[in-house]
């Protein structure tokens, strides 16, 4: 490094010594941007690492999964029989996701550690680093498998649930888990582990969720099919749903939000640089006049950028650690609830992400710092001021043209987008169109206001001041616009989803009680006066196009499925459906079949039944939110003929008015245990609680991005006040009152915020339309009505108004003192 | 019109104390014009700021049109300036987003005394009536300073303070601008104080005083 470069560097860096606040803003932008991006990338990497272990259970291979052909669980007797016939590597698993008494969601996994194919290790200690005593020593084993048993709770799960060693977790329906021990098995993730025997005892069942097995030879597979194929299904997990593919949309969504945060963070850097640029233009020109060669200046700027980039990436990566740890449980919940994917609640640090953050930070600094500074070495300051004063600059007009073009491309590209990445590219087009259109929108509104209020001089002045403030606030307003569009889009998506899910659940769960199969029969139910109507629930599972297909037997007079639930069916489709066909079965299918398998109304599909393969004609579709599998509804009469050995799952009971307490009492009197019936209202509440938890990550990221945008506005306002201090001093020197002063100086930010809101509304709605009708369809295969609810958007606007007002008030706190001080130097300038 | 009574004002510059005014007293009547001269750093601008109520004193009293402005609060000072004082700066300090007309009318409007007829006659007298709709960036330095003069006079102040009003202008323009300022202030009956380095500019005013070592000396 030459002496000239060092001198130049020391001279340009001296600015930050005199203006530490600007240094803080450059750093804040970089740390927030890098931090949010890294946190999200870390969450994605951790989740994807979990998927690669998806065919393992507690460290044991689970490449094959054995399920009951007609029931949702497997009898322990079947398991015993399998082992007796030589399938000794098969092991039983119980997996349950339940709510604790205080509403927290917990996952329970149970197996027999002794029969796990690769077992031989002990558990992890509470810090997850060292192995503790093996569970197979005499005392450890007996504590785990004998009353009162043990529940092994991973440290992070215990922390989340507030459980301490020895404490017993009580479930919502009253069941109490064994005393907690804070330790975990490999890949236990966020699940509570109990011994199989303990689980069978506390859940009072003789059935397990499924059986798992390590790789089976073709000979073993053939033997299995021969001996157990009539009642058990063997499926290869590696051929099952690809979790990485399935969850791609969520990860792309998170990455997009992370990048959005980074872009918004870069805007803060841009604003800080704007100010430092203004202040250093003279310095750079003096350096050039004094003989510093351009190469030295460029080298000094490059070194400064590198210093900022490294510092920003380092601090950003550090900031990402607690952030990702705080967000990860919400992501794990999303994965579990939407995709059924089990993901650890603890993010894993990935050193590669630091380099990614560094590259991003350097790219961000290069964009924000290097280009304007280099421009400053060749452009005179007068040029920019005259440009700022023009009503609409050529750049603004070009920007508006680009905005319109982007919207046109999005419109034309809409029908063609067929992958998640293409879907998100459409979203990006809408977002960038918004920021490209913003300058023209603001300046035109200001010009219209000025023209409309031509006769009121203060209004004319206030509107005119918009064109002076906007160049300084442009980037912050763009950041706010991006955040607001994303917020409205996602809020509408979540709102639409919640409403659709609630409607769907209320139809599906319209029965007041659900009673487990085998504890009541039709005769006993008929004798109960409080039962208005009762309908049997029966499902058979088969497969179609590589996915599980649930064939549901539906009572045609049951209140939870009727003509109103049918989408795109003909006028007589419901009548045709329950009348049935002769040669061909008639079904209604879930939307997943339409979007993921390209089945349309009138198409026929072939499904395996107990009478052999049969053809089913699709008469219409129904919404089936959140289901990753296919499903068809068949009238129960036909179902009973085609799947005669399917065991009923239970009864849906509709009770007479106000008979709830009586019904609960009677169910108890009939000898039903609390685990054998459930109030559908509780299920509905639990489902909605799960839903809200699922979208917590999106809400958290949206809030964080809004916060970053608020900081960008605050930083910009401070820069505006610095830039215009002498002008503000002039206002006061002419005798302007503080009231008039703050009215005129606040008006531009108010107007710009209103324009941002007005622009964000249609673009946000367009975004939610794309999310629901494109991304959702591509990702999950179902769609729903777009509901643009007024309340959450009004609330969001209030929040934004409050945030902008807070930024204005904070930035104005020292304004009076600073302007009074500037009054003294006004005449000297 | 204004009177400074035994005022003290000093600055600390590292080890040294610089005295701008040391027991300084000065009185000027209505309609008079005076040039305030002095070496660089003598404190001419500070003294002007003190008279305008833009800067504070260490000791003494400042009376403008019978009001002791050193007793006024910041808000009262602002209101006082709005009505009684017109200011002209070396760098014009026009509001870039407003037209020449709106800039010139600004203080009169703030004071609620804007008179369209008077404004038109002032623009006409200053030779800028054809520039009324232009923005500051579309005006030359001389034109901008004429707008600033119009602003300083449009609310009919009792006192006009001009700090190096021709400091950014060439010689020919300077002469034209100062002539306009002096005659327009005289027509309006305002007392005029012009801070300047230039003897040529000072020669347009009726009196000249020189500030140095904290005291004022009349120049004959």
Could you explain how this protein is built, in words?
Helix content of chain A is 59%, strand content 14%. Chain A contains 26 helices and 22 strands. In chain A, the strands form four sheets. Chain A has a nine-stranded mixed β-sheet with strand order 8-9-7-10-6-5-12-3-13. In chain A, strands 18-19-17-20-16-15-21-14-22 form a nine-stranded mixed β-sheet. Chain A is elongated and about 100 Å long. In chain B, strand 4 and strand 5 form a beta hairpin. In chain B, helix 3 packs parallel to helix 5 and helix 5 packs parallel to helix 6. Chain B is globular and about 50 Å long. The longest helix of chain B has 18 residues, at 171-188.
Give the SSE layout.
The complex is a heterodimer of chains A (829) and B (220).
Chain A: H1 3-18, H2 20-51, E1 56-57, E2 60-61, E3 64-68, E4 74-75, H3 76-84, E5 91-99, E6 105-111, H4 138-145, E7 151-152, H5 155-161, E8 168-170, E9 176-181, E10 191-195, H6 196-202, E11 207-208, E12 210-213, H7 218-228, E13 232-236, H8 243-246, H9 248-289, H10 294-339, H11 351-376, H12 381-389, H13 394-413, H14 420-452, H15 457-508, E14 513-516, H16 522-526, E15 531-544, E16 547-554, H17 573-579, E17 585-590, H18 591-597, E18 604-609, E19 612-622, E20 630-635, H19 636-642, E21 648-655, H20 660-669, E22 677-679, H21 680-694, H22 696-723, H23 725-733, H24 738-780, H25 790-812, H26 815-826
Helix pairs in contact in A: 1-2, 1-9, 1-10, 2-9, 2-10, 2-11, 2-22, 9-11, 9-15, 9-22, 10-11, 10-21, 13-14, 14-15, 14-24, 15-21, 15-22, 15-24, 15-25, 22-25, 23-26, 24-25
Chain B: E1 2-13, E2 16-28, E3 33-38, H1 44-52, E4 59-64, E5 67-68, H2 74-84, E6 85-88, H3 100-111, H4 116-126, H5 141-153, E7 159-163, H6 171-188, E8 191-195, H7 199-202, E9 207-212, E10 215-219
